[in-house]
Amino acid sequence: MSVKEPYKFNLGSLLSPAEVLVERGPITKTALIEKLIAAVYKANPKLDAADILAQVLKREEGISTTLDTGLSIPHARLEEITDFKAALAILPSAAADPVNPNLSIKAMFLFLSPAKPIFFQRHLQILSSLAETFKPEFIDELIALGDPAKILARLQGSR
Q1: Rounded Cα–Cα distance for residues 149 and 16 (Å)
Q2: Greater confidence, 1 or 27?
Q3: Model's pTM, two decimal places?
Q4: Chain centroid offset of residue 134 CA
Q5: Chain centroid to CA 6
Q6: Looking at the domain 14-156, which fold is it?
């Protein structure tokens, strides 16, 4: 009898090169979320960027999605989409989390899920894969790469 390995979603499959950012200057968490939503919107102009921002920020109120590993995972479930959307930012100069100032954001993975119940299991798998993949060492590796194309290639090969 073999032990079944946990399912690990290929996170790189959610991203295009335009949806991977390296943010070198100081930035707030909200401004970074806005930039990531703008990257998703650019590839999906039918979406309402202001509405998405409002939903993501509402989700962030009071309950930070920043993990102690340095990964922040702002996300929302949207009625108007039929497939997952995402954007990634890597921050060589960490940003503070306004809800928990003791946490530093070194990577932010914004993802948007379809709100239909059929997608909920995959939504949870993406959250699990993010937490499993974005360990401090992996985030530091992505920061060292420093180039969106190299970061995307590394993430696509991270299985």
Answers
A1: 9
A2: 27
A3: 0.90
A4: 10
A5: 21
A6: Mannitol-specific EII; Chain A (3.40.930)
**Residue at token pair 């990531």:** 36
Structural domain boundaries of the chain? Answer: 14-156
CA separation for the pair 89, 37 (Å, rounded): 11
Copy the structure tokens of residue 141.
């590796």
Ramachandran class of 62: left when φ > 0, alpha when ψ lies in -120 to 50, beta otherwise: left
Q: What is the DSSP string of 103-151?
A: -EEEEEEEEEEE-SGGGHHHHHHHHHHHHHH--HHHHHHHHHH--HHHH
Q: How far apart are CA 30 and CA 36, in angstroms?
A: 10
What is the C-alpha to C-alpha distance for residues 80 and 71, in angstroms, rounded to an integer?
27
Cβ-contact 146, 92 below 8 angstroms: yes
C-alpha 62/C-alpha 82 separation (Å) is 28
Helix-strand-coil split of the chain, %, nearest 5: 45, 20, 35
- Retrieve residue 2's tokens: 């073999």
Phi, psi of 21 (to 5 degrees): -120, 145
Q: What is the pLDDT of residues 77-136, one digit of tens each?
A: 999 899 999 999 999 999 998 888 889 999 999 999 999 999 999 999 999 999 999 999
